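WP5 quarterly update. Target: Sensory box protein. Source organism: Legionella erythra. Length: 1101 aa.
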Amino acid sequence: MTVNGLRSKRYFFCYALAAVAYLIAAVVMIGWITGVPQFSTLGTNSTVMRFNTALSIVLIASAVFALALKKRLAILLSLLSGLIGVFTLFEYTSGWDLGLDYWLLIPQTAIDKGYPIRMGPNTAFCIVLLNAAILLYCLVKKTWAKLLQLVLVALVLCLGLAALLGYVLDIEIIYNWAGYPGMVAQSALCFTLLSLSLSIIFYYRYYKFYSSHGMAQTMAILVTGFLFFILLWQNFLNDAAVQLRRKIAADTQLIAKEIEVSLHDSFWATRRFFSRLDHGLNDKAIHEDAANYLNDLSTLAVIAWGQDVIYQHGRMDDLTKKNVLRLISLCQKGFKTQGMTITVVEHEASGGVPYLCFAHHEGRPGWMLYNLQRIVSGAVKRADSELTGLAVHYGPVALFTQFNRGSPAFIHRWAYTELLQLDFLTNPLVFKLWPSPRYVAENRPWLPIITILLGLAITVLLSLVNLLRNKVVMDNTQLKTSITDKSRRLLEVESRYQRIYDNSPDLYLFVDRTCRVVECNQTFMRTLGFIRKKNLIGQSIFDVLNIKNTMLEKNIMNRITATGVINNLELDLMNQFDSTSRMMLKVSPFIGSDNEIIGYLFSFRDISNIKALQEELASKKYSENLFQENKAIYDLILDETTDGWWDINLETKECILSSKLLRSLGYERGNYTPTLDFFRDHAFPEDFKLLESNLKKHIVSKGKYPLHQEVRYRHRNGKPLWILCRGQGIVDPDDKIRRVVGTHIDITALKFTQEKLSLKNLELDLIFKTTRTILMTDTIQDAFKFCAATISQAIRFAVGIVYYLNSDGDRLHADTVWHQPAKGQEDACSVSLKTLEVNKQEGIAGQVWQGKKAIWLPASTANPFSLEQGHCAHFKFSGALAFPIIVADEIYAVFEFLSDEKHAEPVEDLDMIDLLAAQMSLAVERKMAYSQLQHLALHDELTKLPNRRACMDMLDLCISRAMRNKSEVGLMFLDLDDFKEVNDTYGHHVGDQLLVAVSQCFKQSIRAHDYLARLAGDEFLLIVTDFSSYSALSLLAKRLIDSIPHPVVIDGINVEVSVSIGIAVYPFAATSAEALLQKADAALYKVKSEGKNSFYFSNPG
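Structure tokens (predicted):
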């Protein structure tokens, strides 16, 4: 199983158990770090889990998770946790304090007060076992490791469950080792969850191993034995601790009794001295008395009396008066009894030595200071106790501390504490004592220890015996299975050879030395027509073979007798149905175990079909020769009808190319070996990609999709060739295509002709489109814009420009600009190019203007289109084409086209461009001539105003528009008054000039969109649209009448003339153009009859 195998759903329960343990330990760690006891105790009043224990459990749970992700991470986490447990056990066993408890813990936390911070030895033991199991799983794949890792986690599971049971039943011995910190309930629960999780993982991982090797019994023996002896060890250890503490308690009480006696002696001696002070002795007598006290009491350090503090000190105490005064000042407060104040003082003035101070303040003051260290040490010596260490405290003051050499490991676990309360002291004296190493060694439970070790050894031996027994049983089972399997295979081999023997194509016959039949195979019986084998056994071989040729029979017998061997003897055998078969006989002796001939093996092989086979081989050889001849003819036909052929085997990757095909690409068969990559190497990439795609479609469709494509190949000299490639897949009987054959036809000449024809078609199409556009468009400028777009799109130019000569006639300006539609800022380019203006002698347009012919300029170091490039930075020009439009031997305009880097193909055929320019020039001339004729047909030559025909067409158009828009159209009929008299008086030339002058006056008086025309003679028509009312028409009519000056001066002649106007309005006066004209004419007649020089509206109807 791989690491990913541990991600199966059946392992989710294991990871859930580890997750619960992880959460419990993580909450405890938060409690330690934050100092919140509720977290560390999980809200209960139970003992807190140690910080190191919580950290180790978090690491173990993380290692369990990592088993499914990355084993290296699991190993690292397990090593870290295991080292914590190993170092902790090392501290317990060696007695050294490595400080591990403070390396992994923030010291002096709030929860630390009152709780030990080191994990218990059974807790460290469980941590080591769990991590050892994980490391064995990750690193060792041996058989013993598979057993050991499951035993370890099962042992931890039992220890955890036992500890939980001890907490439930309140049996401390189960979860607590005497003198050591015990395993707390939270730790026991986490160990139970983790061990259960790992047990399930290991069991699923090695299920076949555990079930096949009978490991359940072995594991049960080991786990039960180890668990029993561990609990037994805890019980023995607890009994030893109880016995040892009893002895320590007795020694402690003895020392306390001695100290009590010494202190009582000091108390009564002090009372006697203070009573002598009260008797009024002089200082000399008191000096003598104090000296006697100091000599008699070795524990007495200082005696002082009087107001001046006269003092004496003992031989072992050297206190200055300053120090004595300082100590006396500390004796003012304390326990008061029988006229004395009793205080224990400790100050730097005494060098840190504690003193018991008795102060007397009634009458003459006095003070006596006893050295408490000497009091305690004397009592210890007198008690003669086997103690290693002793510590005596009075409140916070350490009275005495002593440790001897050779302390046993962790002697504090055997420490005993005793309190001594004296009636003249406020606080009790606190004793803490440790036993000596000798006593500890003498009172160790050696017999239980040896018994436990022997029991563990017996448990291991029992498990090994059970393991070996299971292994023997398994080996016997495997051996039995192997023997059974080999016997079965041997029988199968025997049966197989028997079938081969019986069904062999050869005829086998075994005879003894007298040539009597002993055995034969089924083929012999079937061939010769025998039914029962027992009818043949014992008969003479010659009777069975039924050989009719006596000479042949004797020859066979003689050769057998002489050599015992016959090789390749042909003979005819007749079967029971009188059918003869030609046989090849071989005879070989059969040797027994004593190297004596015991019989002969007759082997017959039917050779009746050898002649048929020979004839068939001859026929095949003839067919092969015929095939080679036909293939040569076929190759010749293909070479003559095509430019080569090819044959590809898709499975073997074999590629056969004809010699003509290789020569068409510049290769010879002798110096080039074609491969399957021949087409890829010589075809254009884009064409080969399409060919490869069509070939796949052809194969998938079983040859129905046609393989017919034009492909560009690269000749050996680098010249491109156009090849028509056609192929057909050969469908095998299994409906698969494994071979594809095809032909190549060189169509380069055809493609060149098609290209020429395409260019000619392009030329004719451009000529047709441009000339038609010029002739059909209203203005030549608009036509040139369409022509620039058409030419640019056809020849793939980026920008097209049309230059015209400006009004001054000395410069060319870009009036029309076209560019390829694309995203970007091409509009800015168009605006910039429209501002381009050059002289006739500069730029591309200037060269065309001077030479009057088309030119093509490619990009070079001297940029020929730098002017255009400066006005359009969004294109990178790579070439320019320009040609003139010539009308009446003068250049009318210049077309200029610029190509960018995307369309950099040069224009090589300038003859086509010249022809295009010539045809466009002719079209422009025709357009200009047609425009001139059209103007003459629709305008009055004298006044340049539209004539009657143009006016009537415009009136029809206006009426149609008004009919759609439901609006009005006004028609004014204007006629000059007394014009005939002007002609008669001054002549027609004055009349003509008068008409011109009057028409100019009329044009200056009307709006831009009003339409003024000359009807005939001195008659004019004015079409008015977009007016608001009749008043507007009246104002316009008055403005027209007033526009004629009085007099009109013509060549110095004063001419008097006026105008009369008849007005008709559509649709009120009439609904057609002719009718409206008649109405206006009638209104004009009305004005003429009433006095002229006025206007009149036609009545509706």
